[in-house]
Every structure is written in structure tokens, then in C-alpha cells.
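3.2 Worked example (two chains)
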Amino acid sequence: MYSLHNKPKAQQTADPSKYPQGKFKDKPCRKCGTTFSPKAPSELYCSDPCRVTALNDRYLERTYGITWDDYERMLEEQEHKCKLCGSEGFLMDEKRHSMKLVVDHCHEGGQVRGLLCHNCNRALGLLKDDVDTLQKAIDYLGGS
């Protein structure tokens, strides 16, 4: 999801004359189905938004068993805010990530719990998702 390794369309530079057919055939976008003229034989998507959405969709399905539509539904349900701190989140690396909120899941059962900002997700991970440790941290911060 986060990895956007393929170059944006504007930076793709294949030369059709170097290929036997001398041109690239029009083909349907793998995401939306729109027919487009590729700039390289390996180009699969008609636009950068289709490419990013398709890559994110594949990542989410492979890693968490949810679709991009599931992610967007959760975003709407959470009003585009972290489920813990209420922030809008942030991009860790704009060149490699496209989502401000990450999918939080139970490491034991794999169930998706919600969308968190990177800091809240890391905090839970550092506390090993342990309720007792988290309660001790709460007590500590409260002065108990």
C-alpha cells in the first residue's frame, strides 16, 4: 500500500521505436478499465490515481485481508482521524507512502481494529499490545 515504486506517468520514458512493433498498443487500465495509450509496454494503469489505488488495494488485501474500499469506509467512519488520538495523521515518507493513517490489527488473531496515526500505532506496538503494560503507563502518567 505504502510503496509507490513505479515512476509517475510524467516520468515514464520508453521509446516505442526501440520495440519491434514501433508503437505501444492501447490497452484497458487494470483498475478502472478505461482504454489508454501506454508510454511503455509494462504500464498497467491509465493514471497515477489508478496506479496508487491499485497498489494500495493489493497491499491491503495481501497484508490485512481488506480492500481499498474497506479502508476508505473506515476512514469515513472515523472522520479521517486517528481512532486513538484524533489527529489527521501524517505521511512517513511522501515518496513511498500515500496514507496518513495506518491499519492497526491484532498481531495474534489478525483482526483489523481501526486506523491509527503512525505514532499511536507504534506506541501500541512498543507496548506489545499488552493491556496490563498500557494500564501501568496510564497509572504512571496519572501519578499513581
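3.2.1 Second chain
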Amino acid sequence: MNKKIILIFIFAFLIRLIALNQSLWLDEAVTSNVVKNFNFLQIINKFSPTDFHPPLYYLFMKLWTNFFGYSEIVLRMPSVLFSLATGYVVYLIGGAWAAVFFLFNPLIVYYSQEARMYMMVTLLITLALYFFISNIKNKISKIHIKNQIYFNLFIFLSLLTFYGSIFLVIAFLLYFLHKKQYKNLFISLFTLFIYFLIISPLLYQQFLNSKIALTNVINWSLVLGKVNIKNLLLIPIKFSIGRISFYPKWLYWGIAGGWTGYMIYQISKIKDQNDKSKFKIINLLFYLFLFSLFLGFTVSFFIPMLQYFRFIYLIPIMALLLSIGPSNKPKNNLGGYVLAGGFLIFSLIYLLNPQFHREDWKSLVSNLPKNKPVYMIIASSDPVTYYLNSLKVSELTSLSVRQAQDERVNELEKEIVVIPYTVEIYGYDYKKELKEKSYILNKTTTFRELFFEEWRKP
């Protein structure tokens, strides 16, 4: 790499350190509590059956935290490094502009700071893409076989990290079928057979537990991503401006829509290439991107999952498509500089403005009243226990049962604290319940995307 590329990666790393110690939110706290409280085997046979993801990311994080600890920065640093490594692979495929469009993409910057599996699967699937494209470019049999082995290895690992990568995997397989590359297709199908042979007991248990969860959690479908116009439009919008939102909404949709339209316009300017091999790669990238989204959209009619972050592994492909227009000559690079500058501005708006950061559990927990019982949905209490492990949290939905069974509880708990986080998903009307028990709302204390309430009996 030349000096300019090295400087780009250093700058990309430095901006990812901004606000890296912001509060963990629910899913990140789950990651922390899992790797802290379960050993490697227990992650597989005790935690994973109750989760909705494969276990590879948690196993990696268990190893990582054993060496470095559990602070917010430590938990998020793997995602930072995964994103930079992905940027390097994108650079190898498409050059400097592709790397810039990936590294400073606002959604990538956001998830580069999240202690979840999304950057890990993005790296693995992009490595698979690298060897997939190498297969197309190379005609020397030994290199071809090596690339195919690496391709299937990273496909295998990506599926052990995030089930959602299956949509791009299917797109790969259908390409082999269309091109009559039956040897490659057979090897990949055999890899998938081994994968499902290994993962099927866990998948079956997760399926059974998900049915129970959908029954017990009344409004769980609200967070799964139903097929509707809003969720569909959010995919290109979030891919272009990241996870920022503001009022008035007409201004947000105007800015977001305008910038997304400009990005799509830049992609649409790609002209026929004299280089047939390059034109072949362009068509391939369009196919992989659009067909993966189409598969996800279709499946979401049956299994709701149409949420933009579940397709984040497609952003490297988008960056490669965006990079085809700009050249190495500054006079021809206006569109490239505008795109790069826009991505950087949206990324900095998120990084430098705390209102766009994650839920502020750190502040909420530090401000909880002392010596008052705390009630919330225990299944959502991981952030509380992360920041104050000694705090005893009681199940909000069992409040009336406890009070009916034990008069002493009813006498002692004249003042309680309620953290009504996720109550809408569980469909529990806690306010009605508390008012029937003669409680009065005394005070509400708000934080970023969170609040707690203090209730008392007169």
C-alpha cells in the first residue's frame, strides 16, 4: 500500500475511536454477560439454544475478553478491527476508492463500534467474495482450486457467525448453476451439507425456542422487520446516511432521500466497459447485491427479518459499485469526492453528536434511587446488570403476583422504581396494574432513549 492508502486507514481507525466508550445498549450487554458468565462449551449448549444466532462470534469474544477484559472499548475493539480488515479486502478487490467508500460509510462506522457479530460476518463474507471474484479472473487450475477452498471456508465461517448471510450464499450458488460451473457448485453444496449437519441440532432447538418466544412475547414481530414500504425504503437510506434521524421528519426524509438518490445516480452512471472482464465483474456485483436483497425481501413474507442491518454485509459490494466511476485523475473525480465527503460528514454527525449514540444505560444505572426496589422486564435487564451487577432487579410482570402473595412486600414496597424498557413488545400494561394497586407516578427521569419512573403509594 502507498502512503495515501496507509493514511486513509489510520484516519479510519482514529475516527472509530471517537465515542467508543459510549454506553452499551441491550444487545451489546447481552454479548458481555454471555462471555462473562458462560464457558466455551456452555455458550454452545446452554446459551445458543436460547438465542437466535450461531455461536462463532460469542466463542471469539469469549477468547478475546479472557485476555483483555470487559470494558466498552475492549468489547467493541474487535468490530473496529474487523471493519478495517474488511476495508483492506475491499481495497484488494476494487482499489482505493472502494476502500474509502466502505471505510467511511456511515452505517459501517456505526456498526464498527458495536459489540455484535455484524462486522465479523461482513469481513468473512467479503473474504469469500474476494476469492469468488478471483475464481472468475484466474484460469490457472491450481489457483482456481485454492480460491475455491478459501471461498467455501469463509462461507462456512460466515454462516457460523450470522444466519442472514445465507442470502448472499444462495446468490453465489445460483451463479455457479447459471454458469454451469458444476464442480464449484458441488463443492459449495457439500460445504453447506457439512454445515447443516453440524448446526442442525442447534437450529432445531432455536426453532422450538423461537416458537415459545413468539407465543410469550406478544408484540415480538414489531422488532423483527415485517415486509412494508418503510422497512424496504430504510435499506438504501440507512446504507447511505447511517443510523441518524431527526425532526422534522419531512426534512429528514428530504435530506436522506436526496443523498440516497445521488448515491444511486452515481451507480447508474456506470457505463459499458471496454474491458470485458471488468464488465463481467460489474454485472456480477449488481446481481449479488440485488438478488440477495430480493431473497431477503421474499423470505420476510414468511419469517419477518426485513431490517437494514441484517444486510450490512452487502455494503462492501455497494462500495465496489460506487468505486467504478471515479478514476485516478483528480479532474474526473468530482463525484467520488462528493460521495466520500458526504459519507464522512454523516459519519461525523453520528460520532460527534451524543444524541445519535446508543441507549444511555450507563447514566440511567448511575442515577437510580438507592434502597428502592427496581422492576423491569428481566429478559431485557442485561445493561443494568452490566453496569451494576449487585443490583437486584425484579420481574415487572410479576409485580401484582408478588404483592398478592406476600403482604410484607406490599407493606415494604410503598416506593418502587420501574424501568419500562421493552414493555410494549411484551404487551404488558404496567401503568394500569400499578394504578389498580393504588400507586401514583411520582417522578420520571429521562436519559438518551431511556427513562425510569418512581411510583409511590400515598
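3.3 Remarks
DSSP finds 22 helices and five strands in the chain.
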